[in-house]
Amino acid sequence: ARLLEESETAYNRERAGIMAAKLADGEPCPVCGSTVHPRKAVITTGAPGEEELKLLKSRYEKCLREMQEGSRILGEKTAELNTSVNHMLGACRSVLRIESVPDDTDILLGMIGKRIAECDEKLSELRAAEQDLKAGLDERYKCQERLKEIELAEAELTGAISEANEEKSSLSSALGTMEGRLQALSGSLSCKSLAEAEESLRKKKHQLAMLKDALKKAEEDYINASNDLQAAKTLLEDIRKRYDEAVISESEAFEKYSESMAACGFKDEEDYTAALMDESEVKLSKEKLQLYRDSMNSIDSELRRLEAETAGLEPQDVSLLEDMKNRISVEKDKADQTLRSVTARYLSNQRTENSIRQENEKRKELENDFLLISSLSKTANGELPGRQKIAFEQYVQAYYFNHILDAANTRLGSMTGNRYTLIRREEPENLRSQTGLDLDVLDHYTGKIRTVKTLSGGESFIASLALALGLADVIQSHAGGIEIEMMFIDEGFGSLDPQSLELAVRALNTLASGNCIIGVISHVAELKERIDRQIVVSKGINGSTVSIQLP
After folding, report:
1. Cα(424)–Cα(292) distance, rounded to whole angstroms?
2. What is the pTM of this model?
3. Fewer CB in 10 Å around end: N or C, the chain?
4. What are the extents of the domains in the chain?
5. What percent of the chain has pLDDT over 90?
6. Quick one: pLDDT at residue 137?
7. How far is C-alpha 260 from the geometric centre of its chain's CA atoms?
8. Distance between CA 473 and CA 467 in Å, rounded?
């Protein structure tokens, strides 16, 4: 810049010499108009020429643009650095649980190392507690299984005790009955001594055994005879049935045979036999018939023999045995039914237990998945207890919001005389409400940061205008091919003081000097004087009218 100023000064100082170098005799001087040039001005050696001056200006403008771009990048990097530092300091405060972070790096690293050691120790304790908890849970499951076995054994013992009590009662009753019978028998004894009683008992037992053997043999003979008789009766009935059927068939066949012989012109059977059969065939048929009749006679004889053998036998009463058999069969059916019912319940309970175990494993897996997803969801939604309430959307928005603030602060600085700078609030007022996009303002006059709610109406309008312009700048820089060509601002200028109004209008004029059209909707008279192109809306009796005013 200084070289350019010196070159411009030298160029202006040597401008007369430059003009004189172009003068020719007889041509009028552009300054005095004389056509005679007795003493022309001389260019000093080393003075810059016009082309050299233009080159210096071009280099200066290029350096100026590079410096502005570097300044902008420096501002962005400084803001990013400050943000990273603030994030790091916030993380240190959160991890170390302190209100302020020491400036000494060694002290800070020592505190962090101590905190890491504490966390490792706590993690070891938690892992040990987790192992104890797992061991306790395993022991609990074993105890539950043992309790189930004990409950089943208790139920079985209860049933056995009930059965034993019933059997005890039955035996007690039987014992009483036997004692009564013993007393009755003792009174009716005919034996005078124990030896006579034993001898009499021995004889009675011998007689009883003989009678039992005879009864058993008679029962066996009766059963065998009954079986043989029943088989013979069945066979006889079958033979009689077959015989009757054969007689009927023979009668029907003979009738058909006679009808057929008559239809064929035979007088009788002999005439037919003489015509069709020889003697040997007739003999064979008669032999077969005779064999059949002999078989019938044999069966009748066997039937008569069996009836004669069983004629003197008396039927035995087996109703008591049948009743006992029926009772035992009923009890067996009940026991089988009970066994099937208990087996079905056992299998059903076993399937239910397996199903419950499977569902319990699924529930544990779902609980683990839920804890992981719930923690991730709370982190993404900004709902972690004891932490800043920053949702994922707000975190992403805050990243772009910082770029908007950087662009807005460039506008705000020019409109407020570099007094205010907008800052995104990093630390929330409390840990209960959502944060991340709240704004504070840095007042460079006082050097303090305060909330934007403390700005006046005019200052709030200027800040809003700066944010809108910053948003437009960010959109144009991030979205290639998109350019903000028109912007409308509705009201807000009436709350500005003259100085703020002048700064705002100057910023809008700067923006409008490019390719962007700025439209202002306002009732402020000062703006009407400052803006030469206007669309005026006037009210009238017949409604509103629109007129366009151009310079």
Report:
1. 127
2. 0.34
3. C
4. 1-99, 204-310
5. 2
6. 64
7. 94
8. 10
